[in-house]
Structures are given as C-alpha cells and as structure tokens.
Design brief:
Layout lengths: L3 H34 L6 H12 L7 E2 L2 E2 L9 H15 L1 H4 L13 H16 L14 E2 L5 E2 L6 H5 L6 E2 L2 E2 L9 H4 L2 H9 L1 H4 L12 H12 L8
Antiparallel strand pairs: 1-2, 3-4, 5-6
C-alpha cells in the first residue's frame, strides 16, 4: 500500500503526464487542420456558399460532416456522388427533379448563389474526414451482354444524375422507368432526343431538361443504346 506522500506524488505525476499528452495531442490536431481542410482552397465563393448554407438553415433538413437533421439526404460527399450538373438543376428547380414527390423548398437562388453553394459543397467533400462518411457498397448491375458491371464501369454522369431517378439492375431511383434493356426499346437517336429535350418527345414528361454537355449526352447515348438483352451465341 502506498503511503500518503507516495500516493500524492503518484497522483501529481499521473496528472502531469496526462495533461502533457492532452496538450500535445491538441496542438498536433490544430497543426493538422490546415492540411486536412485544404484551407488554401477556401475561396470567396466557398465562404459565400457557407453563408447561404447557414442563412437558409440547410442543416435543418440535411446533414453535413455528421451534423444536422436526417429529413433530407446527407450532403458531405454530394459533389462526388451527384456532380455539379445534378446539383445545379436541383438547386434551380427541385420540383422539376422529383415531380409529385416530397421535394426541397425552392429558395429561388440566383445563378451566382447556386455556384457559391456548389463551391462550398465541393470544398466540404474534399476535406479529409478520415474515411467519413463511408462510401456506399453499390451492387453490381446487368449491362449490355449479360455480364456484370460495377458502378465504376458506368459513365460518371450516369452514376451522378441518371441513377437518382432511374434504376438499372435493381439499383437506383423509382421516379422514372427502369433502364434495363433500354437499348431494346429505343435506338440511339431516340435516346438522344430524350436526353436533349424530354418535353419535345413527350409533353407531360416528368424528366426535366438537364444541363448536360454534348460530350455527356454522347457518352450516355453510347452506354444506354448498348444496354440490351444478351443474344445467345
């Protein structure tokens, strides 16, 4: 058994060691912050986007870096997951993206405000959060010749935009029709018309006119037109 003086010395020494370790770890953490947050990439647009995020109480519905509500999608990696084209269309007119369903309030942001919000969310997505949130384990989907292709094998624009509303191989949204074997139903030209201007093909189409570049449209046409039933050899 320790004597009273030995116990006091043990307590003081232990407290000193733990305090030193705590202060050291705190200093180390603060030294890592600039590199982990990419502080040098915080532009005026990023700051403006952060102000818009706060002033419109976006955290009242969305979660960012683990903080916020769970009423609407988690947005920490939304730039990587959906891309700027989808984000811009969603912020400009949420109702057009998901007609007839629960939807985000239209805040009538200006183009500059939309660009600022996207810049802020892009910066958030590049912050080193030590693996948080984990990437979803996407299932493999059936494609052109009956083989399997992971999400990484599909066009990026398909994974970011199309899959939000359409399903392929059982994975994706249910707003629009499933795209399995769409190449059997539509030729390349018909697919292109629907991507360029859905309302010109069907006046009451739920699909909005998306801000797709010509290159993205060509990539989607090539992919979707080849998504067909496997022909037995």
């Amino acid at each position: 058994m320790l004597s009273k003086s030995a116990a006091r010395a043990f307590f003081l020494a232990g407290t000193a060691v733990c305090t030193t370790a705590f202060v050291g770890l705190t200093v180390d953490t603060f030294q890592r912050i600039p590199a982990q947050t990419h502080e040098d990439t915080i532009t005026p647009a990023v700051r403006a986007g952060k102000d818009l995020w706060d002033s419109n109480n976006c955290m009242g519905c969305h979660t960012l870096m683990g903080e916020g509500a769970y009423y609407a999608p988690e947005l920490t990696r939304v730039y990587e997951r959906r891309g700027p084209a989808f984000m811009k269309a969603m912020l400009r007119d949420p109702a057009a993206m998901y007609p007839g369903q629960r939807q985000m309030t239209n805040y009538h942001f200006t183009d500059d405000e939309i660009d600022a919000l996207i810049a802020f969310l892009k910066w958030v997505g590049e912050v080193d959060l030590q693996g948080f949130p984990p990437k979803p384990n996407l299932v493999q989907v059936a494609v052109t010749t009956g083989g399997l292709a992971s999400a990484a094998d599909r066009p990026q624009v398909f994974n970011q935009i199309c899959i939000a509303c359409h399903a392929l191989g059982g994975q994706g949204g249910a707003v629009g029709p499933a795209l399995d074997r769409v190449g059997d139903r539509l030729d390349a030209q018909a697919i292109r018309r629907r991507l360029e201007d859905p309302l010109s093909v069907q006046a009451d189409a739920k699909m909005p006119k998306l801000p797709l570049t010509p290159e993205q449209i060509q990539e989607l046409v090539a992919f979707l037109s080849q998504t067909k039933t496997e022909v037995p050899r």
